[in-house]
Design a protein that fits this description.
The complex is a heterodimer of chains A (about 475) and B (about 260). Chain A is of the alpha/beta class. Helices cover about 25% and strands about 35% of the residues of chain A. Chain A is built from twelve helices and 23 strands. In chain A, strands 5, 6, 8, 10, 11, 13, 15, 16, 18, 20 and 22 form an eleven-stranded mixed sheet that branches. In chain A, a hairpin with a 2-residue loop joins strand 3 and strand 4. Chain A starts with a helix and ends in a 5-residue tail after the last helix. Chain B is globular, with a radius of gyration of 18 Å. In chain B, helix 2 packs across helix 3. In chain B, strand 4 and strand 5 form a beta hairpin. Chain B has a single domain, classed as P-loop containing nucleotide triphosphate hydrolases (Rossmann fold). The longest helix of chain B has 15 residues. In chain B, the strands form two sheets. In chain B, strands 6-7-8-3-9-10 form a six-stranded mixed sheet, sandwiched between helices. In chain B, strands 2-1-4-5 form a four-stranded antiparallel sheet. Chain B has about 260 residues and is of the alpha/beta class. The chains are: A alpha/beta (about 475), B alpha/beta (about 260). Chains A and B meet through helix 9 and helix 10 of A and helix 2 and helix 3 of B. The complex binds adenosine-5'-triphosphate (ATP) and magnesium ion (MG). The site of magnesium ion (MG) has 5 residues of chain B, from helix 1.
Chain lengths: ~475, ~260
């Protein structure tokens, strides 16, 4: 009989289920990164001059930067000139209704479980689907419009609501923030835009579905969400990509702005192609996500379930500027085979009585490496700031790794910062206990992992919590027993 | 129902069971007693298929099937249940969700459809009542933060829910308070039928006042060295195990009770 280590050594080699490609005529920019390409993208999108200028400024800055070196993994060299920065389905740059969308594209999203025709939609969820560089369809637009809620693609927002975009774009994540933020600001392809007017509680989940299809392209979307005073919105993004032997770069930027008494809940279920067993291929998921609680009593909550990507490298953060504002970060990151995750959060306490809560659950299987990296910063004016951090690691097998890098910087002695961390292994005894009740090892591992991640999964909207549970189970399926 | 013949088993090269024989028929209750370290829990582990226990000789038939060929989960699905001496905690997994999963796995094995939500709830209520098992415990995470006694009661609650053919209780009585012992025993007596059987491992004769065994066996140094009726338990309570130790030297040479 094998030991639990043998059983679980390469648990998790189940084939990636979203790895198919779609054959569709594409408009693809030539590979390479220079001012002409940036002009080309901007022109394709019929952008105003100010946006082109800001792209060019970002590009010039980007070209001066070097790759960071502080991460806890070996970053393979990325040839930015070998990537195409624009790929779009040929038919149309903008769709007025679903009837105009290539049926092949709609079929792709069906296949991914994201039906875009409204009658088939999950009730209460409006979806924006982004295929390579452009938004394909946004559902429930009219219904939202009645409430004054704007939910559209980023490109459309640039055309239809330039004043809002201009006012907020780059205010939370400036192009100078980091190399990938600079890159994104230069070549941003599309993304989602949300504006919730004063006092409106958005009645449905807003959701964006990102799909990379074309080869040798990157995806550089930008998401901008503004919750005006006293408003509420819950937003969810999901992502998949075909299986390819080359690595593909995904460098998105997400900016959230919550004004007085507003609340934004942002959930991610990330399932980009992770690469094969040997670590060949897969997405580099290098994303900058940050929110600002600009007003009093504002609240921003990040929830992420990260199961995909060859490398996940991101720190969804909250700037707690308004007094009494609060920030939350709930994360499950699962790495298997040769996957790497270096993720966590930063909470910047600036206002008085600001609170933050960090719950991070890392799961490593196979040769997966999982690092939690977090910063809790308490400014000198942040009277009575409170932080609670719980950072757990679960190991499946003997060849994976878990690491934690918690940083605390406090300039105010009224602050209270609590940090708890645990590392555990799935025990042979736990699996045997479940076996003894008739549950096989694969299901037992799924049960244990879902139990471990429960506190985070509970934060997700209902429909997605179930999906995420299945995703965790599927991700761990493999050559058990 | 269960037939164990000349069973020898080792852990890490060390022989623990040294030729054990036992015959259990439907409707019977067998008590197994014996000093610490004699191999009682090992027997339970071998019967339920825990890894690292290597069977070196002998055979075990369960309802005519070669039990040792089956995976641990299939043994459970065939109807063998072990109430663990040390139940583990599984954080975040709700007791009820776990029980439903277990029940449905067992049903699927028997080609039965998953249990309906309503029926499951009814069953849950019925068994909770039978064992006076606290609803809040049933709703909590599996054994997480349970007291020692609560864990033991949860084992018996699971037993009641899963209705196995053969239940092995490994020192379920240790850690139970006097009232709980009475409640658990009453529950076991109600679950008893002519179709199922129990193997009860215990150190204390008191449990056997409540659950009256048909046979009492003494396991010593990996073998059953003496078998009798419930009077044997009383005798052990009085005299301890020393008087059996000399016998044991002899019995190793000839097959013991079947
Ligand atoms: N995994 C193991 N590794 C090494 N030795 C073991 C292992 N499991 C059991 N043993 C040894 O086998 C012997 C029998 O243990 P077992 O747990 O079966 O005893 P027991 O009769 O149940 O005792 P108790 O009454 O104390 O519960 C002991 O000497 C024990 O140390
Ligand atoms: Mg024991």
């Amino acid at each position: 009989m094998s030991t639990d280590i043998d059983i679980l050594k390469d648990v998790s080699t189940e084939e990636y289920k979203y790895g198919f490609t779609t054959d569709i005529e594409m408009d693809i920019a030539p590979k390479g990164l220079n001012e002409d390409i940036v002009r080309f993208i901007s022109q394709k999108k019929n952008e105003p001059e100010w946006l082109l200028e800001s792209r060019l400024k970002a590009l010039r800055h980007f070209l001066k930067l070097e790759m960071p070196r502080w991460q806890n993994f070996e970053l393979p060299p990325i040839d930015f000139q070998a990537i195409s920065y624009y790929a779009a389905p040929k038919k149309k740059a903008k769709y007025n209704s679903l009837d105009e969308v290539d049926p092949e594209l709609l079929a792709t999203f069906e296949k991914l479980g994201i039906p875009l025709s409204e009658q088939k939609m999950l009730s209460g969820v409006a979806v924006d689907a982004v295929f390579d560089s452009v938004s394909v369809a946004t559902t429930f637009k009219t219904k939202l419009k009645e409430l004054g809620v704007i939910f559209c693609s980023f490109s459309e927002a640039v055309q239809e609501h330039p004043e809002l975009v201009k006012k907020y774009l780059g205010t939370v994540v400036p192009y100078t923030d980091n190399i990938f933020a600079a890159l994104n600001a230069a070549v941003v392809s599309d993304g989602s835009f949300v504006y919730i007017p004063k006092g409106v509680r958005c009645p449905m989940e807003l959701s964006t579905y990102f799909r990379i299809n074309a080869q040798n392209t990157g995806q550089f979307e930008r998401t901008l969400i503004i919750a005006d005073e006293g408003s509420y919105v819950s937003y969810l993004e999901g992502c998949t990509a075909p299986m390819r032997d080359e690595n593909q770069l995904h460098a998105a930027v997400v900016e959230l702005i919550a004004l007085d008494n507003a609340e934004i809940k942002y959930s991610t279920v990330q399932n980009w192609y992770p690469g094969d067993k040997e670590g060949k291929g897969g997405i580099y998921n290098f994303v900058t996500k940050r929110g600002i609680c600009k007003g009093v009593n504002a609240k921003i909550s990040w929830t992420q379930v990260e199961t995909g990507s060859a490398i996940t490298w991101k720190y969804p953060s909250v700037i707690l500027r308004g007094d009494n504002s609060s920030g939350e970060f709930y994360s499950v990151a699962l790495t298997k085979n040769k996957q790497i995750a270096d993720t966590g959060t930063k909470m910047y306490h600036i206002g008085k009585n600001t609170r933050s809560r960090i719950i991070s659950k890392g799961i490593s299987a196979g040769h997966g490496q999982n690092s939690y990296r977090g910063l809790v910063q308490i400014g000198s004016g942040a009277e009575n700031a409170r932080n609670f951090t719980q950072c757990d690691s679960l190991l499946i097998g003997d060849e994976c790794g878990a690491h934690t890098f918690p940083y605390i910087e406090s300039k105010n002695n009224t602050a209270m910062v609590e940090h708890e961390a645990t590392t555990s292994k799935i025990g042979e005894d736990q699996i045997f206990y479940l076996n003894q009740r008739g549950i096989d090892t694969e299901k037992a591992v799924a049960l244990i992992v879902n139990g471990y991640a429960k506190e985070v999964l509970n934060q997700l909207p209902m429909e997605f919590a179930v999906e995420a549970q299945k995703l965790l189970a599927i991700s761990l399926e493999g050559s058990v027993g | 129902m269960l037939s164990i013949k000349n069973l020898k088993a080792s852990v890490e090269e060390k022989e623990i069971l040294k030729g054990l024989n036992l015959e259990v028929k439907p409707g019977e209750i067998h008590a197994i007693m014996g000093p610490n370290g004699s191999g009682k829990s090992t027997l339970a582990s071998v019967l339920t298929g825990k890894e690292n226990y290597e069977v070196t000789a002998g055979e075990v038939l369960f309802e005519g099937k070669d039990l040792l060929e089956l995976s641990p989960e299939d043994r459970a699905r065939e109807g063998i249940f072990l109430a663990f001496q040390y139940p583990v905690e599984i954080p975040g997994v709700s007791n009820i969700n776990f029980l439903k999963t277990a029940l449905n796995e067992i049903r699927a094995y028997r080609k039965q459809p998953p249990i309906e939500a309503k029926e499951f709830l009814r069953l849950l209520k019925e068994k909770q009542k039978l064992l006076e098992f606290d609803t809040t415990l049933a709703n909590r995470s599996l054994n997480e933060g349970f007291s020692g006694g609560e864990k033991k009661r949860n084992e018996i609650f699971q037993l009641a829910m899963l209705e196995p053919k053969l239940a092995i209780l490994d020192e379920t009585d240790s850690g139970l308070d006097i009232d709980a012992l009475r409640i658990v025993s009453r529950g076991v007596n109600k679950l008893r039928s002519s179709k199922n059987a129990f193997i009860i491992i215990t150190h204390y004769q008191r449990l056997l006042d409540y659950i009256v065994p048909d046979y009492v066996h003494v396991l010593y140094n990996g073998q059953i060295v003496k078998s009798g009726t419930k009077e044997l338990a009383l005798e052990l309570e009085e005299k301890g195990y020393d008087w059996l130790k000399e016998d044991a030297q002899e019995t190793t040479l000839k097959p013991s009770f079947q």
